[in-house]
From TrEMBL:
Belongs to the chloroperoxidase family. It comes from the Eukaryota. One of its GO terms (molecular function) is metal ion binding. This is Heme haloperoxidase family profile domain-containing protein.
Length: 374
């Protein structure tokens, strides 16, 4: 494989990699042999095996002296996920917003009590699209040189701001990507949550409110966003987003499923845990999403030629097809970003794909191997 590269060329690439291929510059345009030579010189960090479930998942104090809320420093990154923003601002994640998959899993389990399998599926499906497999780093906001030199295009390493995976249309607190800013808190969007909570929840956010608000957000994007899209995997995260505040933003000692709006604003806008906040009592995942879906069921799809032209996408997984969601994600989304990875990049992607598959074992899905088994 290296026959066409002289020993002197390889030596020069090894010594001068930092100058010839500066951090954050894409490797697009290099030949196969050049990529095989350069990628091993990058700051490779092998994937870490994900942690298991918490030994003790009972409720406990989370807003404690070891995790104070601190204001952002210059350069700190935040993005479209209120939960990760809040955990970074309290030090459960690195405060600069640059994280590893294992750090996220540990943080969401420890601080919020996300069920382990659910946490691993969310984290590795997000990381494989938005993170850097070479450095094992991801931004919880936008693209940044802090995640290291990018793999070859078409990989983007765009962080959680990347559209239509974790972030996507019909957000509760961020504008649709089409309107320009899909990552910063949007007061107009949040006012919808407040208004619907007052109308349907007596001033609290609950499953009834989540159901009505989800339908409103869908209709709003349908009528106003000509590029509106709601297909897998964003379909899954959109409905998860609706019930997430009920499952994870309510104090674990409170059992009524009613989220106070001041507490909600603390998470969504201020990135701050309420005083004396205790995590959920017992590990929990996506409870309640069926209730939100069943009153206003929709098929995955998108506007095709402007507003109000929604057409169902019969190739997309629905909320109740976990194995199709997994196989389509790997064969379509990941292969599109990494059509022919080699060397350490290929090994890192395969390892992360294995971690992702292991989070689907309860669904009895057939594992797919887009880059072989090793």
């Amino acid at each position: 494989m290296f026959a066409r590269l002289s020993v002197y060329t390889l030596l020069a690439l090894s010594i001068c990699a930092a100058n010839a291929f500066p951090q954050y510059q894409s490797l697009a345009g290099l030949s196969r042999d050049e990529l095989d030579a350069v990628i091993p010189t990058l700051q490779f960090s092998p994937p870490q095996a994900p942690p298991g479930p918490l030994a003790d998942d009972s409720t406990k104090l989370i807003n404690d002296p070891a995790h104070p809320h601190l204001p952002l420093k210059d350069g700190d990154i935040r993005g479209p996920c209120p939960a990760l923003n809040t955990l970074a601002s309290h030090g459960y994640l690195p405060r600069n917003g640059i994280v590893t998959p294992v750090q996220i899993i540990n943080a969401v389990q420890e601080a919020l009590n996300l069920e382990n399998t659910f946490a691993r599926f969310l984290v590795f499906s997000t990381f494989l699209v938005n993170g850097n497999p070479i450095t094992n780093l991801m931004s919880i906001g936008g693209a940044t040189p802090l995640t290291g030199q990018n793999p070859p295009k078409p990989a983007t390493v765009g962080g959680l701001d990347s559209h239509n995976n974790c972030e996507g249309d019909t957000s509760m607190s961020r504008a649709d990507f089409f309107f320009g800013n899909n990552h910063d808190f949007n007061e107009t969007r949040f006012q919808n949550l407040i208004n619907f909570s007052n109308k349907f929840g007596a001033g609290k956010y609950n499953l009834t409110v989540a159901t009505e608000l989800r339908n409103f957000l869908h209709q709003d994007s349908l009528h106003n966003n000509p590029q509106f899209s709601l297909v897998s995997p964003r379909l899954f995260t959109a409905y998860g987003e609706s019930v997430f505040p009920i499952n994870f933003f309510i104090d674990g000692r409170q059992k009524d499923g009613q989220l106070d709006l001041t507490v909600a604003r603390g998470f969504f806008q201020l990135m701050q845990l309420p005083p004396d906040f205790h995590r959920h009592d017992g590990a929990i995942s996506n409870e309640g999403f069926e209730t939100v879906y069943n009153k206003y069921p929709i098929q995955p799809g998108s506007n095709t030629v402007g507003v109000n032209t929604y057409k169902a996408d019969l190739t997309s997984a629905t909320l109740f097809q976990p194995c199709l969601r997994y196989t389509s994600f790997v064969n379509n989304n990941i292969k599109a970003l990494y059509p022919n990875p080699t060397g350490q990049l290929r090994k890192a992607i395969n390892t992360n794909l294995q971690f992702l598959y292991e989070s689907t074992l309860a669904d009895n899905c057939t594992q797919v191997f887009p880059y072989g088994r090793d």
